[in-house]
Amino acid sequence: MHNFKRKLYLKIIFIISFTALVSAFFIEYSLGYQPCNLCLIERIPYGISIILIITIFILKKNEDFLIMLLILTFIFSLAISIYHFGIEQGFFQESSVCGAKDFNENITKEDLLELLSQERVSCKDVTFRIFGLSLTSINIVISLLLILTLTKIFANYEKKR
Question: Which fold would CATH assign to domain 2-92+107-160?
Answer without folding.
Answer: Bromodomain-like (1.20.1550)
